[in-house]
Amino acid sequence: MAAKKVGFWKAPVLFFKGYFDFKGRSGRREYWWMAAWELILVFGLLVGAQMGSSAGLDVMAAPVKSALRGNLGAIIFILGYAFILIPQTAQTVRRMRDAGVNPAIGYLNLLLVLNLFLNSYSMFDDSGLYSILQVAIEVAQLYIFICALKPSAAVPLQKHGAPVQHA
Length: 167
Prior knowledge:
Blueprint lengths: L9 H8 L10 H24 L6 H4 L1 H6 L3 H27 L12 H10 L7 H22 L18
Helix pairs in contact: 1-2, 2-5, 6-7
């Protein structure tokens, strides 16, 4: 079976079709074209948050704290980010499976939420725990990045040529 061709415009369609699909596979093209879309979306959200902010860099440095203060730009940023977090994690899980890596690695994507909260509270700034968590989050994201670069793993086939279905 030939791999499906995924381009810039088809990637978001597949992304949102698989909103809660943690079982299938996502090829490299699908994953990386959507990464380009996410980069554009997050950049747009950050620009919008800055434009809606009277606090300057406060939104980028501490989005959760800014949202709790009623900053509309920060609220929109967090809602937009929350909207793509589930399908982004689902796609990462599918991409890890497609690359032949344990799909549970894809759930490390959720550490980004922890990162948002940690950056918003200054009580962690001078803490060694904060530094350790930051390094752990960055290492996990780097590992996901490296795994996402891997080519698709071969799909095991049954005797009659159909792909093996995993429960």
